Amino acid sequence: QLKLVESGGGLVQPGGSLRLSCAASGVTLDVYAIAWFRQAPGKEREGVSCINRRGSTYYADPVKGRFTISRDNAKNTVYLQMNSLKPEDTAVYYCAAAPWCYVSEPGRFAYWGQGTQVTVSS
After folding, report:
1. Would you say 6 and 115 are in contact if contact means Cβ atoms under 8 Å apart?
2. Sheet strands (E) in the chain
3. What's the pLDDT tens digit per position in 2-50?
4. Residue 32: how many other CB atoms lie within 10 Å
5. How many whole angstroms separate alpha carbon 115 and alpha carbon 122?
6. CA–CA separation, 34 vs 66, rounded Å?
């Protein structure tokens, strides 16, 4: 059974950076595509970024050029480097696993972490 645990969230000023981690246990991550979703209060969960089994990446338009997703198979961990953060990036961030990067279909991700809060505020 795959278990995902996010970490790295926190409070940061606009323009700052954070790196989120998604650590896996139970199964090696390299057999899954791993996505990052976020959900702000009163809003639907949205796909932010995804990396597939081959290492190809996807980014939602609002984060292109600011966020970078990567994976370290040796550490069984996926990262989301977030730079030039904006107040509208404030949300709970979740990582999730699926066979492919179905970033527009959160329901197709069978495994989810518990989420980590990111707050961008001065």
Report:
1. yes
2. 3-7, 10-12, 18-25, 33-39, 46-51, 57-59, 67-72, 77-82, 91-98, 111-112, 116-120
3. 999 999 999 999 999 999 999 999 888 888 999 999 999 999 999 999 9
4. 24
5. 23
6. 18
